[in-house]
Predict the structure.
Amino acid sequence: MTATDSHLRTALGLAASGIPVLPLRAGKVPFGNCRRCADNACGGRPNMKNAGPCACPGPCHGWAAATTDPDVIQSGVWRRAWMRATAVAYHPGGAWLTVVDLDNADAIRWARENLPATQTVPTTRGEHWIYLGPMRSVNAVRPGVDIKSTMAYARWLGPGTGTMTALPEAVRALAVKEPSPVRPVSRAITVPAPGGDGACRHRTPAYLERGIAMAEQRITEATSAVHATVYRTFLAVLSVHGRCGCLTDVHVTRLFTAAQAKGESPRHCTDAWTNALTTLGL
């Protein structure tokens, strides 16, 4: 079996499992845009910042070219790319995954001491720790550590070993650098507690975490009307969690970070949050 056949077979197997794939050329980088798409003259791929639809049949636009369509993967222009490819890559966020890329022994040592064990894949210099759940991608969150999920690609290096763990807060927190570039409020969100004995049914960590994660997902998956989606999502979160005092700076920052990853400015985020509070009378 030639390298081309091997890469193509791997890509088709991953695509059949719901993992969007793309070929990588020498240097472990995606194929550049074709002449028609140079400098994103075509408008780019959906889900890219400031991008519109692109009907280019080739593996253009880096991570945004990743696909699970076997007809596309085996098409003539993609086959020519596979002939030059040196590796198979995938879009972790598109597969509902997050890759913590540990680039050296010190980074691996740090991860073993600070992150939950999960599925692990050896790399040339370190390891990929793969968690179930998407988040925004950030490079250099600490020495030798990158996060690859939405709007990023990672090399496919095999299934690895171990059981995949749900994306933990410890990994999400790595994306919030200090001082944080997004600081919508300087204190916890405080609103009147519910009547009666003041008990809060949302204080179960899993319940609140699930709600925030679903809100992040809704914003991240928006392909149009991002402004409206962000506002409606903020409104939904506040309608459920806004009156019991559960929400903190950490939760709000996660929502703002997801919105900014879709191109929203800090001001737009703050305005949407304030409008949602006003609508609910909080």
In short: Residues 178-199 have pLDDT under 50 and may be disordered. The CA atoms of residues 94 and 279 lie 34 Å apart. The longest helix spans residues 205-220.
